[in-house]
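Researcher: I'm preparing a figure for a lab meeting and need a structural model of a single chain. I don't have an experimental structure, so a prediction will have to do for now. The sequence is pasted below. Please return the structure as tokens so I can convert it later.
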Amino acid sequence: MIDKTTIIPTVLKRLKQLPVGGCLDLRPYKRNRSVVIRKTGEDDYEITEDGFFKDEMKGDIEKVGKLMRAILKSEFPRSTKIRLYTGRYGE
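Model: Understood. Here is the structure written out token by token.
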């Protein structure tokens, strides 16, 4: 579990290290909502939001950082710790 204040730099660092097809899954303590970030190309990412809102977005690493700030406020408003899972998309 990672502190919410350090989650964005941690996610961006891990995204750069992911192989194409790899993903990061962010969930609150209760695991009732999720944000999945999948690496689809060298600098292409797909974000799937499944919680209060259901949405799919695409962009590069810079756009992911900006979107993460907004997503964290809407999906994890009262969470202080966030679970971070790494894997292949669909597993």
